[in-house]
Amino acid sequence: KKHRQTQPKIPPINSQKNLIFSSTHLIHTNKTLTLTFSSLTMATIQLTTSPSFTLIPSRKQANLAAIKLNNPWSVRRTENRRVSSVVRAYKVIVEHEGKTTELEVEPDETILSKALDVGMSVPYDCKLGVCMTCPAKLLCGNVDQSEGMLSDDVVERGYALLCAAYPRSDCHIRVIPEEELLSLQLATADD
């Protein structure tokens, strides 16, 4: 006996203004749900094991509110809801060996990892914030370097380790010689 594969039924949208699906189908092989809305352009949504995300229509469709998908089978309309925690990449300018490179660094990645990804040849060794091989001077901006081993005095003076520096704003950083940071770190250790 052959088993038939049936398409799952998606419950209707419960709202005063109905959104009309032109076509709806689920491709089981790659877990992609493709929805086409009458007032929106096609949206392809990648689902994970526990999907939870918000689609926000463009400004042209101001009459439609955000559509929130909590699981692949339910669609709810929400009024004027915006994503509050939008992940934003920061612009980080890195000066090294007479060259200036502009990077777009995500808040959850280190400046060193992004610099290496784009092919910069900056000094590094441990990638753990302990060896002092990737020192930099923060000229402007803010970074979180709570995972690094620099003393608070050195951090307050604007020094950072690229391998432990996560941007928290747009930044301008200059890579410095290792000796400059080591002498400062040792001097503050004696205080």
From TrEMBL:
User: Where does the UniProt annotation locate this protein?
Assistant: Plastid, Chloroplast
Residue ranges of coiled coil: none
Q: Does the keyword Protein transport apply?
A: no
- Primary location class: plastid
- Occurrences of domain 2Fe-2S ferredoxin-type (ranges): 90-179
Among InterPro entries, the record links this protein to:
2Fe-2S_ferredoxin-like_sf, 2Fe-2S_ferredoxin-type, Beta-grasp_dom_sf
Needed cofactors, names only, are: [2Fe-2S] cluster
Print the keywords alphabetically: 2Fe-2S, Electron transport, Iron, Iron-sulfur, Metal-binding, Transport
What Pfam families does the annotation carry? Fer2
- GO MF annotation terms: 2 iron, 2 sulfur cluster binding; metal ion binding
Q: Tell me the domain of life.
A: Eukaryota
Q: Which Gene3D superfamilies match?
A: 3.10.20.30
Q: Name one GO cellular component term.
A: chloroplast
Query: Which family does the UniProt entry place this protein in?
Result: Belongs to the 2Fe2S plant-type ferredoxin family.
State what protein this is by name: 2Fe-2S ferredoxin-type domain-containing protein
